[in-house]
């Protein structure tokens, strides 16, 4: 399972490890800012895309909007699972309304049921 996380402060791999997610079953990459986000999504082609909201220079919501516009235009494939993982629940709700599949406070991301 390929996982791409956009998060600027918290080490998501450490959160997954502490939550007993078997990292040997994942190819994991974290981007610490959203610069060239669509390029990295296209390059990694993640099965799981994790988006924080407060992440410079674009918010997770802006990354999601740009991704879904590219998918609609036929220039990119949509990752099978998109997770909004802001510390602020209202930001997760906004991304869910726009098309994210899951919304969870980031410190609970290892609790999602789809991990191997």
The tally of strands reads 5
Report the biggest beta sheet as strand number plus sense, adding barrel if it closes: 5 strands, parallel
Assembly form of the protein:
single chain
Poorly predicted ranges (pLDDT <50, ≥5 residues)? none
Span between N and C termini? 8 Å
Q: What level of helicity do the residues show?
A: 25-40%
Estimate the strand proportion: 15-25%
Task: Describe the secondary structure blueprint for this structure.
Elements: E1 2-6, H1 12-18, E2 27-31, H2 37-44, E3 48-51, H3 60-73, E4 81-84, H4 89-98, E5 102-103
Parallel strand pairs: 1-2, 1-3, 3-4, 4-5
Q: What would a concise description of this structure say?
A:
Helix content is 34%, strand content 17%.
Which features characterize this protein?
single chain, alpha/beta, 17% strand
Describe this structure in words.
With 116 residues, this protein is of the alpha/beta class. The protein is 34% helix and 17% strand. It is built from four helices and five strands. The protein has helices at residues 12-18, 37-44, 60-73, 89-98, and strands at residues 2-6, 27-31, 48-51, 81-84, 102-103. Strands 2-1-3-4-5 form a five-stranded parallel sheet. The chain is globular. The termini are close together. The model has no long low-confidence stretch (mean pLDDT 97).
